[in-house]
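Hey team,

Sharing the Protein-export protein SecB run so nobody has to redo it. Sequence (172 residues) first:
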Amino acid sequence: MSDTVQNPANDQGNPPALPLSVNLQYTKDLSFEVPAGAAIFATLRSAPQISVNIDVQANRLEEAQPVFEVALAIRAEATESPETEGGAAGRTVFIAELTYAAIVTLTDAPAELIEPILLVEVPRLIFPYVRSIISDVTRDGGFPPIVLQPIDFVALWQAKRAQQFPETAGNA
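Structure output:
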């Protein structure tokens, strides 16, 4: 009897490895503002309303190389709750903006997978770091931390594609 160990990666039932290498990650831009200054702490009566905007961009760094920068941009803005139901929002409490990027290399990726890897998979991989930074910066700014909920990057990518390539109305 021989003592051989089967490598599960060689089994035909396993999917192939993702043709992606994350070379490095970094904070490209970070900003936290409290426009009203210390006055907001004295006058804030209730939890602010928070809106979050998200964008993903991918750019090839060198034309002849499969090396890309993928940037996940988050803008969280908190405003005072309206005085009355349906009323106008009050002053801006704070604005947190973060652009977090990764430099990645795609090795022999099929052309149809490049866009989903760059705009779905890479943001999914770096999102936990973005979530932590936004939480820390809002807490360190004197407010309860913003804990970003998981993001469906597939739906975000599909919505972005629909904006770039709107379907034409009409009958075929």
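The chain has one domain: 18-161.

Ping me if you want the raw files.
A.
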